[in-house]
Structure formats: C-alpha cells, structure tokens
Amino acid sequence: MTAHEGERAMVIAGAGHVGGRAALALREFGWQGRIVMIGAESHLPYERPPLSKQLLTGEREALHCQLRPAEAWQTERVEHVIAQVEAIEPDTRVVRLKDGRRIQYEALLLATGGHARRLSIPGADLDGVCTLRTLDDAACIARRLVADARVLIVGGGFIGLEVAASARKRGCEVCVVEGAARLLGRAVPAVLAERVQQLHERNGVTVRLGVAPLAIERAADRLLAISLSDGNTMTADVVIVGIGIEPADELARDAGLAVNRGIVVHAGLETSAPCIFAAGDVAIHPSRFSGLPIRQETWQNAENQARVAARNMLGGDAVSDEAPWFWSDQYDHQLQVAGEPALGERSVRRLLADTGSIDFHFDAGGRLVGASGFGPASVIAKDMKLARMLVERGLSPAAELLGDATIKLKALL
Ligand SMILES: Cc1cc2nc3c(=O)[nH]c(=O)nc-3n(C[C@H](O)[C@H](O)[C@H](O)COP(=O)(O)OP(=O)(O)OC[C@H]3O[C@@H](n4cnc5c(N)ncnc54)[C@H](O)[C@@H]3O)c2cc1C
C-alpha cells in the first residue's frame, strides 16, 4: 500500500446519482484529501430518468446520461473504484470490498440506491422477463422494443407507465397489468391516476386493473405465456416488471445501523453510527410535513441530499428538509407532484387552458401539503413551478384563490 492509499479518505459507497453529486460537492466545499467513490456498475455516475424515456425511444444515447464527462472526475481528483462494497466496519472506520481491499474512511456516505423488485412467481427469471434500474437494463430492453413486439408491463407505477409510453412510440403492442384497483399508487391522487389511464388508452395501451401475473412459461417461437389472476393467459415477446424497488440497505443492516425499509437518518442525513451518512433512494428521513419517516425516490431528492450529505461529512450542520418534488414524462404529457398529496384531506383544482390542471391538496388543518399538475409539459410547467414554490415556502393561500384561474399564482406567493 502506498502512503497515498493509506491516507484517510471521504468514501462513498454507490457511484450513482447521489454518489457522483456528493463527490463533486465535497471538492466544491473545500475537501482537499482523497475522495473514493465505489460503485458496482461499470459506468461512471449517470442520471436514471432517461432510462425509461429517451433511451428506450432512441432519442438519447447512454453517453448523454452521464452526470459529468469522464475527464471531470480526473480534474476533480475523484477516484472511481469499480467494485462491490461487501461490508462496513464502523468501529475501525473501514469499508471492505468484495475483492478483499480495505479502505479507511474519515467519513462514509452510503448512496446505494435500490434494487428493482422482482416477481416471485414461477418463470420470473426466464429470458425476456426484465426489470429496469440500470443503463445495462435499459440497453437490454431497448433492443427488444421493436415494432409490433408484444410487450406486457407488470405494474402501473411511474416506471411501468413511462416504459409503456416509450414502447408505444417504438410501435409495440402494449398491455399494462396492475394488481391494485388504480394506477400510480398513493403518490398520485386517484383523480389524476384516472386521467393518466385515459391518456394511455387513447395512445393504444390496454390497461387491466386488479390483475396480477401468476406464472410465466416459455411458449413456442420464443414467446412468453403469462397466466393471469383473472383466469386469462397472455402471450408476449417481452415482460417488463415495474413493481418498485427494495432499498439497498443491506450494508447498513449487517453493520448494525438502524434500518427500517431504508437506512434511518436524521435531518442532517447522519445514520445511527458516527461519521456514516446515507442519502438518496436508500435513506429514510423525517418528513418536513408530518415528521413521519419517508423515503423519496426522486431525481431532485438525489440532487439535494447529495449536497447536504457532503456538507455534513465535512462537519457542517445542513439539513435536508426540502418539500418532495418529482416529474414523470409520458407521451407529450407531464405529471409533476410537489409536497405530499397523500397527506391531503381535500383538494381544489385549477384548470390550465383546456388540457392541463393543478390540484392543490390541504390537510385537515387547512395547510397546503401538496400540488399535483398534469397536462402537456408546455401548459403546466410555468404554473407548476409557482405551485411548487407555494408548497416549498409553506404558504397556504385560500382554496378559492388557488382554484380560480383568473388569479395569478405569482400574486399568491
Ligand atoms: C428508470 C428510472 C427512471 C426514473 N425517472 C425519474 C423521473 O422521471 N423523475 C424523477 O424525479 N426521478 C426519476 N427516477 C428516480 C431517480 O433516478 C433516483 O431517485 C436516483 O437515481 C436515486 O439516486 P441514488 O444515488 O440514490 O441511487 P442510484 O442512482 O440507483 O445509485 C446507486 C448506485 O449504488 C450502487 N450500489 C448499490 N450497492 C452497492 C454496493 N454494495 N457496492 C457498490 N455499489 C453499490 C448501484 O449499483 C448504483 O449504481 C428514475 C429512476 C429510474 C430507475
């Protein structure tokens, strides 16, 4: 081991969105020593939103998903180690890699994201049954989305529906099965979920609610035969499973850190062990609205928490308390959700032109806890930006004012 390798380092487990952004932020905030970013994927850090959208439609290439060009990591002296972190040893402040290497840390960030959940039914591991989390997954799915291919999507959440829209753009025949009685789960109010369903149906997607796959078999001509819970059988060339993620919290759990379907962190993103932080999809933190633990799986959260974690790894006292926000692009439409609409007890709708709307959600005490916009991106973008600011600033204008499209949202800020 050289003297350089023996130096204590800022170590990041997971070279994804949070890992990459945090490494760059550590330099930006003045850390002069080593930064070691360890990732199991063979790629430099990249952004995942295009994986279910432009990467599948062919409108973007993998290289253009990178967080920063390859040279930037050298310029910033970030050591990118391609390896699996096998264990952490909080007592000796050591990270152990699968290949046997041990790296000592000054502070450690767990930015391990999540693993795509798989079906636990017979045939779930057949060739042609895919999940989507990584660039490699996206490349594999993109190869299968050829014109007229029959695509079965299991799960009517964001990833499943974005893939459905991309597959239609590629000329595939698409069916979405969702076990629940509605699309998009609790993150999106039911009224919006219905409109999203109608959008997909108008674009030629078959949506079957309350239906789950029971078994998958290899049929003739490389087709897959899927038995469904409603008694029907379907055939498909490819099955894409979008049923959520499992937070990759195993390193923390094995090391005895507090874990509760995600790594438990305080508002400053410290875990229950000294000098170990967690951020991004894997971290479960107190909600700014309810104080209850929430775990966010969003691009914006990755951006925000990476910087908070970096500050605090260097001894700062930053807090992660931004209101949640995410978007989803499907066809020419965009869905945006700010805050936590699930906490809402009542809502009011503001209509935007003929095609868009924003629903504002209030809790039992009349506090604005969320806003969800839906419509063509060009129609909702401007007002949704203002709606997001209202939620972010904790303002609660009267429902009548928010619902009245003749009153400018800017005037309510
Ligand atoms: C297909 C797709 C589309 C999305 N679209 C949107 C969108 O439209 N809008 C939006 O707001 N959000 C979107 N998201 C969510 C957003 O991309 C994630 O919230 C963000 O990537 C989370 O960043 P992260 O760093 O926490 O996790 P990741 O980016 O997943 O990075 C985690 C990394 O850690 C590595 N790792 C895990 N365990 C280990 C280990 N033991 N050793 C070494 N490395 C390890 C993994 O291999 C991975 O590279 C999308 C996500 C996906 C998958």
From TrEMBL:
InterPro entries: FAD-oxidoreductase/Apoptosis, FAD/NAD-bd_sf, FAD/NAD-binding_dom, FAD/NAD-linked_Rdtase_dimer_sf, Reductase_C
SUPFAM superfamilies: FAD/NAD(P)-binding domain (SSF51905), FAD/NAD-linked reductases, dimerisation (C-terminal) domain (SSF55424)
Residues covered by the Reductase C-terminal domain: 325-413
Cellular component, GO annotation: cytoplasm
Keyword field: FAD, Flavoprotein, Oxidoreductase
Record keyword Oxidoreductase present: yes
GO MF term (any one): oxidoreductase activity, acting on NAD(P)H
Every FAD/NAD(P)-binding domain range: 10-306
Cofactor: FAD
PANTHER family: APOPTOSIS-INDUCING FACTOR 1, RIESKE DOMAIN-CONTAINING PROTEIN-RELATED
Protein name, entry field: FAD-dependent pyridine nucleotide-disulfide oxidoreductase
Taxonomic path: Bacteria, Pseudomonadati, Pseudomonadota, Betaproteobacteria, Burkholderiales
